[in-house]
Amino acid sequence: MPLSFTVGGATLNEADLVAHMVGAVKNIFSTMVFIDDLADSYPLDKPVSHFTCSISGMVGLGGDCSGMVGLHIPEELAREVTASMLGMGLDELEDEGDVNDAIGEITNMLAGEIKMIFSGRGMNVCLSTPSVIAGKEYSVEVVSSGAAVVVPFERGEQRFLTTLQLEGC
User: Fold this and answer.
1) Model confidence at 82: pLDDT above 90
2) Which of 8, 82, 149, 152 could cross-link to 164 by cystine, CB 3.0-4.6 Å?
3) Number of domains observed in the structure of the chain
């Protein structure tokens, strides 16, 4: 069943959120990461909560609407994104700290774009500091009875996910 709820007196549906997320991700990657060849492949064919050799950035939403914004990206693509964002070659990345910082910052930018949806409807929404999880194998599960929007993106053979969990809007 498609997501639909009232935000600031206006109905916001899943298609609106997906369109905003797609536009935000493509804009962030184009202007900040200098990558223009992303394709969105919404809807996601099956739920994903288990990641292998990946990095996940997460930013919490609080205030009039609570939830979580996430970016889940394979390590190899995360390294390419970081190198491009920093104007460096892959061989110039010295440690995983730069990669974690870049993924956290991209997630923060995406959360800021999503926050604008709610702020534009008169809601007060605050963002948490980004958190980053990386590993060879891990699971991310948001304990929530709220709604979720997951938008997959592809760059060549690589795929990453952006997520929005909402509770109490």
Assistant:
1) yes
2) 149
3) 1
